[in-house]
Amino acid sequence: MGRFTRAGAMVGVLVLAASLTLTGCGGDRKQADFVGGPGAVADTTAAPTSGAPGPSGGPVASGAPAPTASAAPALRLTPANGATRRPISTEISAKAPSGGELGEVTLVAANGDKVPGRWRVDGSSWVPSEPLRYATRYTATVTGTGPDGAARRGTSTFTTMAKPGSLIGSGLYLADGRTYGVAMPVVAEFHPGIPAKDRAAVQRRMFVRTDPPQPGAWHWFSNGTQAYYRAPEYWRPGTTIDVRIALAGVPLSNGRHGNVDRTATVKIGRAFEMKVDNATKKMTVYEDGKVIRTLPVSLGKKSTPSSSGTMVVMEKKEHTTFDTRDEPDPENQYVTEIDFAQRLTWGGEYIHAAPWSEGQQGRRNVSHGCVNVSMAHGRWLFANTKVGDPVTVRGTERRLAHGNGWTAWNLSWAEFVKGSALPVPTGGAGPALR
After folding, report:
1. Cα–Cα distance measured from residue 301 to residue 203, given in angstroms and rounded to the nearest whole number
2. Sign of torsion, CA 231 232 233 238?
3. Model pTM?
4. Which residue of the set 25, 219, 257, 370 is catalytic?
5. Catalytic annotation, pick one of 219, 352, 368, 377
6. GO cellular component annotations, sorted alphabetically (predicted)?
7. How do residues 155-194 score in pLDDT, each as one tens digit?
């Protein structure tokens, strides 16, 4: 294996359905090109409470007596009335002096367009379901009830900031509408990375909802360029995952603001898992927990060993070229045509067909770090795997480096949650929005 690099690329929604420059077993990761389509997060548009206004300006249910002003003080809203230069990521919060419950929220732009949104589960704020527009006046109205049941209301008109000149790029490694394997993490990418002091605020704007519900958590890399989201265990087959990385307009401490929101709705397919044992030189393939095939492999030789750990299929190329001429060791420099390649690491480890090593497969390791299989087995695997399927290799001379690929599942749950910028409840967090 050669040196490990990870140069991220953001072109639209980041998805490994497009071409990643391939360097083969032992090559460095090159810049990737990504394509994808917009997704959607289901949101509801709040409707204002009906009824005639009472003395304090709040609506009163039909037939109910009008409350006195002292019994129903107005709600205090944030942003405050008259606020200016607010970020387009602004959320609406309200507080009642004497307690009570908050109800509906309406947010209307100066041209009359209504903005849908949802309350956070903890009731701390109401989150618009789309970025606000720059340099635009909005009016927010929040209704609620006091401890005595009296209706109350608060209104605030504020203006958003002009578009900033310094933005931070972002990406999402999910393609809207696609189906992935059970180990597919939600991978958000940022360029440049998010400063450590800003990660908690950014993480609060990264929303994941699963159906059926499964708890989860985020994990940041030390340089803040990527964050993974996963559950304590692999996703349940058939799960729907809705993701919104609501970075647009989020202010950072380095003077930058987030560029856009990234959204996707994806499905999780059947449980398909590959386990490779260096001791036996075999791969065992499981589908929905049952062994469906066992096949011989050849792993990396001692000078270029394969990585031991749990990896994820990141990309699939039926035909490609491995070019490792930039490797420092001349013995590891080559250009080879490859069939049925499935990327496992940024550093250049793949599962792929290797007809030249079929005589050694199941007996000894001769590769440059890849998992070599026969042409027939390579074709069969390629036809049956999905991006996001887990691959576990054990018993080699090298441990998988954290971040060399989508290594979210190579950590225990206890280790994984330590990388969150926010506290994680025991067992994982649920959705942030109602």
Report:
1. 41
2. negative
3. 0.83
4. 370
5. 352
6. extracellular region
7. 999 999 999 999 999 999 999 999 999 999 999 999 999 9
